[in-house]
Predict the structure of Homoserine dehydrogenase.
Amino acid sequence: MIALVGCGTVGGGTALLLTRDIKFLKEKTGLELGLKYVVDINFDNARAIGIPEELYETDLNKVLNDPEVTIVIELVGGLTFAKDVVSKSLSAGKNVITANKALLATFGEELFGLARKNSVSIGFEASCAGGIPIVKAITEGMAVNRIDALYGIVNGTCNYILTQMIDQGMSYNKALKGAQAQGLAEADPTLDVNGMDSAHKITIMSSLCFGYNCELDRVSVTGIENIDIYDVKLGTEMGYTIKLLAIGETYGDKVSLRVQPSFISNQHPLAKISGPFNGVSLYGHAVGHTMYYGRGAGDLPTASAIGADIISVASGAQKILFDNYKYWPDLTQKPSYMDQSEVESAYYLRLNVEDHIGVTATVTKILAENSISISGISQKEARFDEKEQKSIPLVILTHKTAKGNIDAAIKKLKKEQMISKKIVSIPVIAQKSENIK
Ligand SMILES: NC(=O)C1=CN([C@@H]2O[C@H](COP(=O)(O)OP(=O)(O)OC[C@H]3O[C@@H](n4cnc5c(N)ncnc54)[C@H](OP(=O)(O)O)[C@@H]3O)[C@@H](O)[C@H]2O)C=CC1
Ligand SMILES: N[C@@H](CC=O)C(=O)O
């Protein structure tokens, strides 16, 4: 029997699948599945979607002490009560299913170890890229591959906001409200827009891809909060679209983990992933490039991934994988990390400069001194700030260069009197080449 803790957006969707669709699930899988408890502190949402009242429970201990319950689904979110639910359930010998990427990215090693100690397993398909079965793709579908890179749009809220801003000209705040209304955003949407939710997901997925216990605090994270629609529009004119990319890559025996707003060409396979959808590209040594697409957030799409875990746990498949796969974070070593300053890409730079003779020469000289080669440069129409101060936007596209060079050049440029301190730099990410061998 199943107990579900937290009946909000995802919990509500899951409870619906386990009540309304239970007959279909049994017919399809041949498994005897049953929802016995819905634990929450209030049941407004459960009532609103018609979950039967006899399932409602406020006391977690009742679930923990019920020997009939073999699966506890944690859908509360956060790191405090959720951690208690997961730890206590595992310690009570119950399998756990969770969508809580923050919890697994922070305490994965401890919780996976606890599951192993108690001979149970943790299902977490819904923790990365919502409804896309990406955990199964990495651990099962790509099993024979050495995976050396993962590029993903893995936050539905940010992708929805950016799409609305570009396609509808909607303001950032209005688009964020829209994402919240659709149940895409986290309870605290700061985690979405500041890039941390994507960082949680890239930590979990990279650990499974590369066979290291990747650490959340080694992800270089930039969110979308400070993106200026002016740059988005200039990017569009140049044939680029802006996406919040989560990237995990290996460089020899080193790992690089980063989340960053990035320009990608309109021809890039991830460019067409819009609205609440997510897309994840994996690169394996045997298969080459594979790509996964689907809804990255929302009640039923995420419940679909939870349902897949329920079936895996109930059929015994999850435990077999848990016992045999060697890339779980409690079984692997922490990686060595690539120094972020050495990571290379092309860049879009926007400077605001005074309209003086020699300013472009000063800029190009500083870039050259920092080993940055320019692939394009253009001066745009003058702009006026809120204090009516005029400045000329100078947009530069660079060839591939190390991030350290860009940072050093920006530091120097900011010291020049004719150049405003606000310099925008956005990596321009090309599609990775396959390396089949
Ligand atoms: N929303 C999405 O699309 C996705 C979410 N996730 C993850 O799924 C998890 C749940 O997210 P989501 O459904 O959006 O969150 P919600 O905030 O909608 O749901 C959380 C539920 O837990 C309840 N709750 C809070 N504290 C307790 C407690 N002490 N005891 C029992 N119940 C409690 C809340 O009640 P109340 O409302 O009264 O506070 C609410 O009903 C999170 O880890 C999130 O990161 C993963 C993929 C997609
Ligand atoms: N808030 C998240 C929900 C899914 O993980 C998102 O927007 O992607």
Observations:
- Residues 130, 155-157, 184-186, 192, 197, 296-297 surround LTNE7NMQ (ligand 2) (CB under 6 Å).
